[in-house]
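Researcher: We're teaching a course module on how sequence relates to structure. For the next exercise, students receive a sequence and then see the predicted structure as tokens, so they can try to spot secondary structure elements on their own. Here is the exercise chain.
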Amino acid sequence: MNIRAEVWSPLQNTAVWLGAWLHGLEATDNLVDALTDLGGEGLVGVLRDIRQVSGTALSGEEPVLRLVLSGPGEAPALRAGSEAAEATSESGLGALVLRDADPLTSHVLVPDRGGDWRWFVEEQPLPAPAWLSPGEADQLLTQATNEAARLVQASGYRTDVLSSPRLTVGTLADFYDTPGLPAAVPVRAAKLFARADRVAAIVETVTERMNDHRIDPQLLALWRHVRAARMAGVAYAVGEFGRLT
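Model: And here is the predicted structure for the students to work with:
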């Protein structure tokens, strides 16, 4: 199993860059460069369509763009049985949901592992997301991490396999943050992403780099909270972009 695919997706930063661009906070050239770095070149050809669809939906209480992630035991927050939900589950990469001027219509953009994107139009209401605030998401992730640490300690787990686990975690956390975020990203969202990156790096260090699966149940329980933090961070950042413009 690819642990990284469960705890990180380039769609997090892709969504934030798109949101900043839609609200006029990033130039098109900067967006295209970021999409290229994130492997989202397939979106470059439909940027005009994305702007046209969302241009009349930039105002409002909800963010114009949000991130949908899912994983084992957690279906994507899309209409059950829809083509968009099936494509998202099949790719395992997540999806972007764009608001439309019609409140009953949503546009779901789903990437595949070959770099192509599929665009689905949903004309029925989608399941309501959790709408966690950054503080709520951070608290849940912190609580889950502390509980996992307690269980690991109680198990008596010890290892000498990796000589410098802290260095490895730091290196992986740097990877997760590449290629960075737009300058307009609010501090609260950036801090939430950073915490999610660090927890993801810890999980990957133990399970993949050390090839040690004795504490998988304790670590894998963190996946859902990492994904929730990323989705909450994107929703908050894009919502704040709207308040800046």
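Model: If you want an answer key for the exercise: Confidence is low (pLDDT under 50) at residues 161-165. The radius of gyration is 18 Å.
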